[in-house]
Amino acid sequence: MPGQEQIDFKVDTANLYREDALTDLKVASIRRMVPVTADGKDDSSRSPVFYGHTQILTPQGPLPLQAKLMANNLAEAIQAFPEAMEQEMARMVEQIRKMQEQEQNKQHDDSRIIMPGR
Fold it and tell me: Does the pTM exceed 0.85?
């Protein structure tokens, strides 16, 4: 599209990962990002990265939660999962509370009647 910034779609071949998905089929889903070289072989010079996923059912529907797990291996990721999800849920609740507060303030400001000459 003319006049728009160009997007760089070049793949960073020095930062490639293979994704392994693990789940307990109940609440926990853990993604293990295994570093690989550009030819697809495991890159032992870099450590794997772990992400936890779950969702909380709310009256408005499912609320997805995702957090990086501070872990060096799968056993540590499993152990870190509950606390990471609790922290992410607390962060989301606080974010929702702030958004609701901002919306209430906006509605309050929008509802003021301004009388000319007063």
Answer: no
